[in-house]
Amino acid sequence: MVFSLTMLPPIAISLFYADGQLTLFTTAFIVIFIVGLGSWLPTRRERRELRIRDGFVITILFWVVLGAAGAVPFILGESPSMTVIDALFESFSGLTTTGSTVLVGLDSMPRSILYYRQQLQWLGGMGIVVLAVAILPMLGVGGMQLYRAEMPGPLKDSKLSPRIAETAKALWIIYVVLTIACAGSYWLAGMTPFDAIGHAFSTVAIGGFSTHDGSIGHFDSVGIELVAIIFMLIAGMNFSLHFVAWHSRRVRHYLADPEWRTYLGFVGIIAVIISLALIEQDVYGVSDSIRKGFFQSVSIATTTGFSTDNFSVWPTFLPFLLLMSAFIGACGGSAGGGIKVIRVLLLYKQGVREIMRLIHPNAVIPIKLGRKPVGSRVVEAVWGFLAAYVLVFALLMLVVMAIGEDPITAYSVVGSALNNLGPALGEAAVNYAGMADGTKLVLIIAMLLGRLELFTLLVVLTPAFWKS
């Protein structure tokens, strides 16, 4: 019922631009509200204490039900006209902030439809942040669980607001302020107010949807690209760090955070490698190679998915390096996808420890983040997550290949969906319109798995979960 209210801004946009979509969004509002009301009325008097097991189900249904509800305007619309599968794909891609699209001709599409797509990503991005920082740690899953338990510094010392509602409220305020600042910066850099708001929505959400077919490249503006780079990097950081900065009015804790330093260092190294390779291969001039290399590296490494050029046609190893960087992704507690930097950092430290143990078999070598040791249970959980990630990726890729996609396309679209990235290679280099319906359904599942940190969804598929 609350989600039905998200149809009101597109209704206002339709009225303002007179784009002929008023009936569409009004109908969608009524349909979603009635379905919600019908679900609520029979159970409105029920009062029960929620268990942890209920939390898993609620979290999963939050994305599944709202993803289906978000598809209603696409299903009912005539411009563009979409099949049910395509509508579901576009909706889930938006809400999970993946950014893959089956739509073409965005430049001539009704403004209210364009706005609605951007709004889906913005709402999904905030849902992800609240989920990662406030909800998943209670369930014992997700990157923030190990972060809160073991991480020295701001998060452990300050502790987020003890009540989830207070935490969620603070995160919403930070998210809205970042969005307003991003929209204002885009506008000052040369975007129209409509484009500035739309791209701010998808930038802060690390989504990647655009109001133009050419994405950020449509504007061909260094200023706009710099704004995008800055806010993509900020949005890819752990929102708990932003929370502490907001609460304590200080920023020194960013420098003390190992994940934050690793994140910026990793993105910077990828950007330098890509830029130098573009220069060496003489793809562009020096300045354009640096400009496109840095933008595309930040966009893909943070799993945002904006583009200024079709990187899939870049020479040698560059397209695969960019896609592989998305597997690492952004920081834990952000709206970004991927395995998350903090997990990769712990895996690296574990690898170094094993090498040292070969040299010094009797030495006691703890894994540390900052100055505090990380418990063995946390390291085991990270290894378990990585194993599940690789297994799920391989299985889904084989399924997509069995449906009929070629290996490069299958590898890239599954990796893109699982990492909530968007751009891909092969047949999906431009968009996903040509993908088979079976492939799109598999990718929807991959988007949800990536968004819910795998175990949240996998746990409900086990028989033990349903036993009393």
The tally of helices reads 22
Rg over CA atoms: 22 Å
Order of helices and strands: HHHHHHHHHHHHHHHHHEEHHHHH
Structural class: mainly alpha
What is the arithmetic mean of pLDDT? Answer: 88
Explain the overall architecture:
This protein is mostly helical. β1 and β2 form a beta hairpin. It contains 22 helices and 2 strands. The protein has a two-stranded antiparallel ribbon. The longest helix is centred in the first third of the chain and has 29 residues.
List strands and helices in order, with pairings:
Blueprint: H1 8-17, H2 22-40, H3 52-70, H4 72-76, H5 84-95, H6 111-139, H7 143-150, H8 154-158, H9 164-189, H10 193-204, H11 222-235, H12 239-248, H13 252-255, H14 258-280, H15 286-301, H16 318-328, H17 341-359, E1 368-369, E2 372-373, H18 376-403, H19 407-418, H20 437-451, H21 455-458, H22 463-466
Antiparallel strand pairs: 1-2
